[in-house]
Design brief:
With about 80 residues, the protein is mostly beta strands. The protein has a single domain, classed as SH3 type barrels, CATH 2.30.30. It has one helix and five strands, in the order H-E-E-E-E-E. Strands 4-3-2-1-5 form a five-stranded antiparallel beta sheet. A hairpin with a 5-residue loop joins strand 2 and strand 3. The longest helix is centred in the first third of the chain and has 8 residues. The radius of gyration is 12 Å and the shape is globular.
Amino acid sequence: METDRPLDTLNQARGKRVIVELKNQKQFIGVLKSFDIHINIVLDDAEEHEAGELKRKVGTCFIRGDTIILLTPTK
């Protein structure tokens, strides 16, 4: 499947585990449930990581798009 737009790439990642890095140096790892045109996202089974260490399991969470600096599928 060809991805011409950033939202196409996000759509392909829906239902898969992703790593989300935020401006405050935190990472959230979870299953990408949904997103909107502002890249506000909802993750399921999310975990908060800081400095590479698991800080807490948060379950389902909403992350504002303007706080995200990187979003990538896990391997």
